[in-house]
Amino acid sequence: PLPVVAVVGRPNVGKSTLVNRILGRRAAVVEDVPGVTRDRVAYETAWAGRAFTLLDTGGWNPDAQGMAARITEQAEMAVATADVVIFVVDSVVGATDADESVVRVLRRSGKPVVLAANKVDGPSGEADAAALWNLGLGEPHAVSALHGRGSGDLLDAVLDAL
Ligand code: GDP
Ligand code: MG
């Protein structure tokens, strides 16, 4: 079986957009309304000649009660099957309580985590990305899933962690 790379994070941070960027096609469902991705969706893909399964996650209604619990549950399921986790944070918004609860799940799992500081659409966003060092997960990899900025370096880091 191929190694599994799971993309986790709270709703609307750009997980599905990043998955599409990595796949190089529109396969994952991206919506301005958060919560569209159904549960977990797996795609087979490759980078630098190495094949892996990419797992997109999501699917809860962020307005529902108990969102933090649902995010934690989703992250736990994804992390359990993952060899490496891409943890996506919206660097414009910064780290929220929901992000912090995902961090706790990731720490407990002991799995390698690559931190994606998403929505860094231009050089002015680099400072926002650097602020995410505070999460204690190592280097925040500044990316713009929307425009492709930094996605190659992110994938190199993912393969290094595999
Ligand atoms: P998900 O819920 O984490 O899967 O997030 P989506 O991929 O559905 O994206 C949520 C919203 O964020 C959409 O409106 C995306 O277009 C937007 N988005 C995603 N990545 C970026 C990015 O790098 N820059 C900007 N400006 N917007 C982004
Ligand atoms: Mg999604």
Gist?
By secondary structure, the protein is of the alpha/beta class. 33% of the residues lie in helices and 23% in strands.
The amount of helix comes to: 25-40%
- The CATH architecture assignment turns out to be 3-Layer(aba) Sandwich
Query: What is the string of helix and strand elements?
Result: EHEEHEHEHEH
Tally of structural domains: 1
Largest sheet: 6 strands, mixed
Shape: globular
First-residue to last-residue Cα separation:
14 Å
Coarse structural class: alpha/beta
Indicate the CATH topology. Answer: Rossmann fold
CATH class: Alpha Beta
Q: How many individual β-strands?
A: 6
Number of helices: 5
**Lateral arrangement of strands in the main beta sheet:** 2-3-1-4-5-6
What small molecules are bound in this structure?
guanosine-5'-diphosphate, magnesium ion
Determine Rg (CA atoms, Å): 14 Å
CATH superfamily: P-loop containing nucleotide triphosphate hydrolases
Low-confidence stretches: 31-36
Question: What can you tell me about this protein's structure?
Answer:
It is a single chain. Helix content is 33%, strand content 23%. It is α/β, with parallel strands linked by helices and 162 residues long. The chain has one domain (4-161): 3-Layer(aba) Sandwich (Rossmann fold). The chain has a 6-stranded mixed sheet with strand order 2-3-1-4-5-6, sandwiched between helices. The chain starts with a strand and ends with a helix. Residues 31-36 have low confidence and may be disordered. It binds guanosine-5'-diphosphate (GDP) and magnesium ion.
